[in-house]
Amino acid sequence: MVNSNYNKGIQSANILLTLRLVGIQNQSLEKQLTQQIQEDMKSRESKISSGELALVILALGACKNLDETFIRDAHLVSKLGEKFKAEIENMETHNDNPLTNYYQLSLALLALCLSNGNYSITNVIRYFAPENKNYYFDGQFSVDTGAMAVLALTCVKRSIEKEKIEADIKDLNKTNVYITSLVNKTLSAENDGLFGNIYSTGISMQALYVSSNYYELNGTCQETLHTVLHSISQGAFHLPIAAAQILPALMGKTYLDVNKDCSSACSPVKFNISTDEPVSATPTISPSNISVNYSVHIDEVFNSTKVTVRKGSVFLDVMKAAQKQNKAAFRFTMEDSPWGPYITSVQGITANNSDRTYWQLLSNGEPLSQGAGSYVVKNGEYLEVRWSKY
Ligand code: CBY
């Protein structure tokens, strides 16, 4: 996380938030990250999404530090209120589909709540009912999304109880009912100690910490820690964003702690961060080649091919090799995201949030839990990009 040299914009916000929350003090790194965030804000101001702006506010505002002036001077909290409104307006005109997604809507509510922004809980709470389709992708509960919503709703609940925001008893009851149900859905998604998959477990642990009065745990905690620590040693968290999302939970912190004065409350441990390059977890690429099958799948139509790539190649390399073979069938476009390249179009057909369409990545018929830039392909595998609706 500390060594990544592509810490731009939102990535930086995620990392800065984590460093501050867990009390890792490194002034020059903080300064560098803060600058990147502020530059990104200026260059992409109008294009920045609700969840991105929320992360910026959480990161810059975390642990009572001097960047709070930037938040105030740039009116970031009222801008976030506008972005939140735009999400809801898109839902009203596009079949209940927000501009981005409910993970970002939850991040936005969380940041508005923590920074005492302007929102009416009576108007907002109904969008967070657990049966809302936006918590589900392909009919499956999105654990990341549910957990982020639990954090946001818990902040709201605490604000109501402390009478920081106006609400009636019905709002408080609904908030409690929704938290209970979302926590139960998160707990039901537990498998071998993981909630959802390895990448949703960090945020789920945070959600479970703040709602521990809603359930009883039975030894899962140890199993979770064990599996997460083992996965770290296997290199599962080599992406800086992945590391940034798991670390707060491992240090017993949650995003609801951002308003605390971390330097005294967390009695910062003097971290001895090694800035040596970590040993690469991916095997060194040997000169040998492997061959895989690759298909583009739209409705009933498959365009398939066999491609040869270097051992150690990722899904994206296969897509590039196929595109080189046959541009008409395999051309594609992508966008950069904190998790690496996101495939936006194939054969000129473009994913669209307002229609809930996307290009799903699969291996041997099973959806992948890593993106195109991370998933290392194996010899003989059947890889597929499938035009899908979530
Ligand atoms: N972040 C966001 O807005 C993303 C929120 C998130 C829930 C996110 C996972 C969770 C997180 N911790 O960040 C999310 N993914 C969403 C919302 C989506 C949808 C994006 C469109 C929209 N409405 O905004 C969508 C289309 C359902 C989606 N994710 C698709 C995919 C696939 C991408 C394929 C492609 N076209 O490139 C893919 C690869 C699943 C597949 N088999 O096709 C996918 N997501 C994965 C694997 C992941 C995980 C990444 C893990 C990794 N190591 O790479 C993920 C962490 C994440 C990012 N998606 Co989505 C979920 C997980 O596995 N736990 C906020 C913003 C400020 O940054």
Automatic annotation (TrEMBL):
<dbReference type="GO" id="GO:0005615">
    <property type="term" value="C:extracellular space"/>
</dbReference>
<feature type="binding site">
    <location>
        <begin position="342"/>
        <end position="343"/>
    </location>
    <ligand>
        <name>cyanocob(III)alamin</name>
    </ligand>
</feature>
<feature type="binding site">
    <location>
        <begin position="100"/>
        <end position="104"/>
    </location>
    <ligand>
        <name>cyanocob(III)alamin</name>
    </ligand>
</feature>
<dbReference type="InterPro" id="IPR002157">
    <property type="entry name" value="Cbl-bd_prot"/>
</dbReference>
<keyword id="KW-0406">Ion transport</keyword>
<dbReference type="Pfam" id="PF01122">
    <property type="entry name" value="Cobalamin_bind"/>
</dbReference>
<feature type="binding site">
    <location>
        <position position="197"/>
    </location>
    <ligand>
        <name>cyanocob(III)alamin</name>
    </ligand>
</feature>
<keyword id="KW-0964">Secreted</keyword>
<keyword id="KW-0813">Transport</keyword>
<feature type="domain" description="Transcobalamin-like C-terminal">
    <location>
        <begin position="312"/>
        <end position="388"/>
    </location>
</feature>
<keyword id="KW-0170">Cobalt</keyword>
<feature type="disulfide bond">
    <location>
        <begin position="113"/>
        <end position="155"/>
    </location>
</feature>
<keyword id="KW-1015">Disulfide bond</keyword>
<dbReference type="InterPro" id="IPR051588">
    <property type="entry name" value="Cobalamin_Transport"/>
</dbReference>
<dbReference type="GO" id="GO:0031419">
    <property type="term" value="F:cobalamin binding"/>
</dbReference>
<feature type="binding site">
    <location>
        <position position="390"/>
    </location>
    <ligand>
        <name>cyanocob(III)alamin</name>
    </ligand>
</feature>
<dbReference type="GO" id="GO:0006824">
    <property type="term" value="P:cobalt ion transport"/>
</dbReference>
<feature type="binding site">
    <location>
        <position position="368"/>
    </location>
    <ligand>
        <name>cyanocob(III)alamin</name>
    </ligand>
</feature>
<feature type="binding site">
    <location>
        <position position="144"/>
    </location>
    <ligand>
        <name>cyanocob(III)alamin</name>
    </ligand>
</feature>
<comment type="similarity">
    <text>Belongs to the eukaryotic cobalamin transport proteins family.</text>
</comment>
<keyword id="KW-0171">Cobalt transport</keyword>
<dbReference type="InterPro" id="IPR027954">
    <property type="entry name" value="Transcobalamin-like_C"/>
</dbReference>
<feature type="binding site">
    <location>
        <position position="245"/>
    </location>
    <ligand>
        <name>cyanocob(III)alamin</name>
    </ligand>
</feature>
<feature type="binding site">
    <location>
        <begin position="359"/>
        <end position="361"/>
    </location>
    <ligand>
        <name>cyanocob(III)alamin</name>
    </ligand>
</feature>
<protein>
    <submittedName>
        <fullName>Transcobalamin-1 isoform X2</fullName>
    </submittedName>
</protein>
<dbReference type="GO" id="GO:0015889">
    <property type="term" value="P:cobalamin transport"/>
</dbReference>
<keyword id="KW-0732">Signal</keyword>
<dbReference type="Pfam" id="PF14478">
    <property type="entry name" value="DUF4430"/>
</dbReference>
